[in-house]
Amino acid sequence: MNRSHMSAITRRWLMKTFGLITLLMALIVVSLSVVLHMFYYNAVRSTLSSGYNNIVSGYLGDDTETDESFNLLARAYIESYSARDTVNVWVIDRHGNVVATSDGFRAPDGIDMEDYIDALGSGEQTSEDVRTSTWIGRTDVGEKIMAMTFLLGNAPSSQSPALRFSTSLEKVDAQFWSDVLLLISISAAAILLALVPSTLYIDKIVRAVRKTTAAANRIAKGDYSMRLDYTENDEIGELCTAVHNMADEISTTDKLKNEFISTVSHELRTPLTAIRGWGETLRQVDGEDPTLMQRGVDVILSETKRLGGMVEDLLDFSRIQSGRLSLRVTQFDGVRVLDDAILTFRARAEREGKQLLYTAGTVQAPMSGDADRIMQVFVNVIDNALKYTDAGGTIRIVTEADTSVFRVLVSDTGRGISAEDLPHVKEKFYKADTTVRGSGIGLAVTDEIVRLHSGSLDIESKRGEGTTVKITLPLSRDEERSPENGQE
Q: Considering just the CA atoms, what is the radius of gyration of the chain in Å?
């Protein structure tokens, strides 16, 4: 099927490119043939006309009064005519009779001389005011000739004598068609010279495209190590490079996807195992140990909340991938949302032996957006800071605001991120540290939420020294905070 497709490409290229070249060469050949035909026939016509010019200065004139004297002058002229080998001359008297011929044969009676009849009628006036007519046709024996008749006398009429010059066109036509055949041969050779190397080059391109198609099919089946050996620095080379890059990207994404599935499976299994274990334990104690019952319920609720958060992250990621992540826009104070987010982590920070430093100042951040999604952004960033900071470390949160933006800087003294991993941490499925729990999509979701709010999320980090995440969000304009928009 692929070969048939490529053959169709070659055929279309040949039909369009060489069809145009062939048409152009055909027009050139036809034009030159017309010019050659005119040249040869004009040369014959000039040769025939030269015979009459000799007459004007020679034997026959306007003073011939008797048929006998005219006949004598006609025979004398015929004897002196120098082109008798190629041109046949007839002298016609005023009665329409052929009285002398250059070939020595008597002209047949009743011969149909269209050029003579036309000259007697309308004819064509030459520069010497002589009426003439030309005829091209075939004789009774099938020979193609050109004939020219010149009427003699100052006042041509039906009683005027005439000279008729004729010559065979067989050799002229043979030479003409020989030249046309030569032109056709030259044109065909030119087309062939253009066709052969071009076809070879197109065939090379077709083979390269076929190999690229085969490579793409192998990549589609999972062979991401497939490489093409095309080395030319052209568009096909760029296509091969693009295919290699695509294979590398798909391989990396596939690897990240598999790691993501493995991580999510593990992350889901852990709370499910805890819930199942405590459920079986609580069923066995049957209310005999209230302290154990309370502890089990707390664990179940905590792990259920953890599962819910993971499911929400997965749903948000799915919405982002399909372009269905929407915002419920309201007016809110960003500082108040941040306060609530930090409050949820204070107990955890104390429990894990980490310092969570945040001083709520007098900064105000009136914003227009989805307060729940902004809360999700703050929660994800602070949660990451706690996860990657060991006991005894510090997480510091600083807020800044001016007339147009609200900035939140979350800094930690944790493990940090290597220079190789830093450009990729906001990509889907990517985890810089696989030893820490998490699905690898939380930061990708966070970055998308910030982007939907026309903000930015920037990360600075150094391995072993810690990480700083800067969240920049636009503040509401004054008209958005007016009473008409529900603001006090």
A: 52
Compute the distance between CA of residue 254 and CA of residue 257 in angstroms, rounded to an integer.
Answer: 5
CATH assignment, 78-168: 3.30.450.20
Instruction: Provide CATH 3.30.450.20 ranges for the chain.
Output: 78-168
Question: For the chain, how many residues are written?
Answer: 488
Region of 235 please: left (phi>0), alpha (psi -120 to 50) or beta.
alpha
Tens of pLDDT, residue by residue over 54-89, are 555 445 554 445 778 888 888 888 887 777 788 888
CATH number of 235-322: 1.10.287.130
Of 460, 264, 447, which Cα lies nearest the Cα of 373? Answer: 447
The reported pLDDT for the residue numbered 193 is 83
Confidence of residue 356 (pLDDT cuts 50, 70, 90): very high
Question: In the structure encoding, which two tokens stand for residue 144, read together?
Answer: 């193609």
Look at residue 41 and tell me whether its pLDDT is greater than 90: yes
Categorize the per-residue pLDDT at 337 as very low, low, confident or very high, splitting at 50, 70 and 90.
very high
Which helix (H) or strand (E) is 100 found in, with range?
strand 98-101
Which structure tokens are listed for 152? 């003699």
Give CA–CA dist 287/297, Å, rounded: 12
Neighbouring CB atoms inside 10 A of 129's CB total 8
DSSP structural state of residue 104: S
Query: How confident is residue 413, by pLDDT bands cut at 50, 70 and 90?
Result: very high
